[in-house]
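Hi W.,

Here's what went into the run:
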Amino acid sequence: MGNTHDQDANKLGHDPLEWLGEEEADTETKPSVSLEASPQSSEPVLKPESDAPISEPEILEGPLTVAQVEEVHATLTTLIDGLPEGGNWTLDLSGVTQLDSSGYQLLVSAFNSCKLKQIAVSVTGLSESISELLTMLGDSTLKAMADKG
Amino acid sequence: MTRIISCVNQKGGVGKTTLCANLAHALASLGKRVLVIDADPQGHLSQHLGVVDDPELGLFSVLQEEHTLLQASVKVTDSIALIPPGRQLVRLESVHMKPGRGLLLRKAMQQAALEEFDFVLLDCPPSNGFLVVNAIAASKELLIPVTPDYLGLSGLSKMAKQIKRYEQVMGDFTELWIVISRFQRRAVNREAEQKIRFYFGDKVTPQVIFERAATAESPGHGMSVLQYAPNSKSSDEFVALAEQISQRGE
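Here's what came out:
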C-alpha cells in the first residue's frame, strides 16, 4: 500500500496499481516497445502498412513434442471447429523445430478431424529434418498432404 | 468528426459488452448515430442488441478485405448499426502478428464512409491478440471498464502497461476512459474505487455503473437496458455516462 488516501484500506489487500505512484519518480522504467501478441517475438506489429493477406496458412512454430501437444491440441481444435465444412486449410510447418511421435499423432488426428468435415488440408514448409523423421516414422499422411500443398 | 472508441480490457467479466450495448443506445438517446463493432467471436454484443441469428457476414470478411464495413453492417435501430463478428472470426484470434496485420481494421475504417456516424464503438474480446491489436490501432480513444475489486485492479494494472506500449508506437490516445462497472455497495468496492480515482484522476468517469438486476436481465431479451427498463436507475446511469463521454470528447 503506502499511499495516503486509504484510511480504511483493509478490505482490498495488496494494491496492484502501486507501481503507478512509483513511476512518477522513475520515468526510465518504460516497457519494451512491441505490440506483438507473442511477447517472445521482437517484430513490432505497427509498422507501415503491408497488404499481408489473412487467408494465410496456420503456422506452427517451435517444438511439437509431448510437452506441447496439450496446448497445440486446444489451439488446433478451436481452429478446426471454426472452419466451414468443405473448406480448405493450409498448415505451415516451416517453424516446427522438433517433432516426436506425440506431435505427429496430434497432426494426424487434426487432419482426420478435418476429413470428417470434408475440409481439404494441405501442408507446407516441411523441413528436411522433419521430412526425414516422417520417413523414419513410416508416415504416409503428412507427406501426401505436403505434396498436395 | 467520427469518434472511434475501443472498449477493451484483457480481463474477462468486467462489463465490456454490457457497456458497449448500453452506451450505444444511451448515445443514440442523445441523438448520436452509432456504429458498433462486435470484435468478440462469441458474438455476445450482437445478441445483446437483438441480432441472435449469427449472420455469416461480419467483421471476419471485413478483415479478409472481402467486404467493406458498411456492406457487413446490419441495422439495429434508425440510429445504431452493428457489424457482427461473422461465423469464422474465431479463426483470427490466433493469427500470428506480422507487420501490417495490426492495421487492417484501421484501413477498413479509412475506406468506409464513417462520417455518417458520430461514434464507432468496438467491443473487444478479453485477450490481447490480433483482434484486440486491430481494434486498438483503429481507435483514437479507449474505454476501459473495471470492476472495483482486487482482480479488477490487477487487470487494470496490466492494461495500463499495455496502453503505454501502444502509445509509444502510435502516440497518445486522445482520451482514455476508465469506467467503474459492476459496482456494489461494499467496503471493498468503495476502497477499490478510491484507489482507481487516486491513480487515474479525471480519466475515471464520474458516473459509476452499478450491478443491477435490469442490466443482467436485458441481454436475454435482446435489448439494451434502455429499451428493457427505460425508467430504471440502470438506464439513467448509462445515459449519464453517455453525456459525460459525449461532452468531454467534443
